[in-house]
Every structure is written in structure tokens, then in C-alpha cells.
Design brief:
Number of strands: 6
Helix content: 10-25%
CATH topology: 60s Ribosomal Protein L30, Chain: A
Radius of gyration: 14 Å
CATH superfamily: RutC-like
Oligomer: single chain
Order of helices and strands: EEEHEHEE
Length: about 130
Amino acid sequence: MTGPLFHMVTGAPTPVAPFSHAAEVDGWVFLTGQMPTLPGDDRAPLPEGIEAQTRRVMDNLIIVLRGLGLGLQHVVGVRAYLTRFEQDYAPMNEVYRSYFPRDRLPARTCVGVTGLARGALVEIDCVARR
């Protein structure tokens, strides 16, 4: 077993708290939950609506993955957090599903929460394997 690596990815969104974009050990890569913030301007207003926020979150995850030489095809597990679960679950799923081939959907948990940083509607983290 090798020691963990802690990654900060150039061009990825500025963290909204004290964390690395990803931590890696023995080929397992744990990506911090991404918010619907714009890379390069974390003070910009968040996109409006769950669909736009989900796209921004997924695109932010892709930026981090690419910065580590990975892609969505390496993702094996996902956790999604929604502040308006009943209202946003179905539309979030529609956007989320569009990022993966139908036969390569990662294992996933989706949880309703009472709040997220920056007043976001959605946050998604994932685990990838090299």
C-alpha cells in the first residue's frame, strides 16, 4: 500500500471549504463533492434550477477527473445530495443519466439534505478507480 496523494486540480472550481479536489490511494480516487460553482469565479451566482445546477456539477466532476488523467468511465460509485428531494429527484436523474452510457451506470446513493454550501440544490461526489 502506498501513502495517500492529495490532489488540487488546476482549472477546477475553487473549494468552498478546506479540502482537496481528490484524494488517492492504491488506484482508488475519491473526489470531493462538487458544487454548481463556476470554475474561475466561485462568487458568480449559481445556475438557476436543478437541471442547470446538475450539469454544472457533473461538468465540474469531469474537470477534476480529467485533471487526474481520468474520465467518467473510471467512476464506480456516486453519492448525490439534494436539498429539494421530492421536487428535484426526477429532473436531476434525467441530467445525470445523460452523462453515462446506459450499460455503465455507477453504483449510486442519493440523499435528501436540509442544506448545502452556497445554497446549492445539488452536490455530487464520486469514487473512481484507475
